[in-house]
Structure formats: C-alpha cells, structure tokens
Amino acid sequence: MHPTASTMPQQPPRLFTALCVLTIVGNLGLIVVNLLKVGLLDAAIRNGGVGADASVYLNVLLG
Questions:
Q1: pLDDT at position 60, please?
Q2: What percentage of the chain's residues is helix, strand, coil (to nearest 5)?
Q3: Is residue 56 part of a domain?
Q4: Which domain covers residue 57, as residue numbers?
Q5: What is the pLDDT of residue 7?
Q6: Alpha-carbon dihedral 26, 27, 30, 32, rounded to 10 degrees
Q7: What is the structure's pLDDT at 2?
C-alpha cells in the first residue's frame, strides 16, 4: 500500500448521498401515487364510471 494512502474507506460525496435519498423518496412517492390511481380506477369500475368496453381490459390489468 502507498504510504500516504488512508486505511479508512472514503465516504461518498454528500451530493451523491443526497441524490440517492431523493431517488428513493421519489420512487416511494410514485408507488404511493400509482396505488392511489389503482384504487380510484377500481372504484370507478365498480361504480360504472368507466365504459363497459374499457372495464373488461382494466379488470384484467388490475387482477
């Protein structure tokens, strides 16, 4: 090992850490929004707010 090399592992830059945290938080936000959209779409299908032709395909997608 080089005599001036540090034996401690280097910390990643703060910007990298901040961007990773923002990416994770953003992805969790997108998951929550998509779950909300699925719930609203399911409620619309049950209440007849979606056309009959579309509801067949949407029911397949929603499982």
A1: 79
A2: 70, 0, 30
A3: yes
A4: 15-62
A5: 78
A6: -100
A7: 67
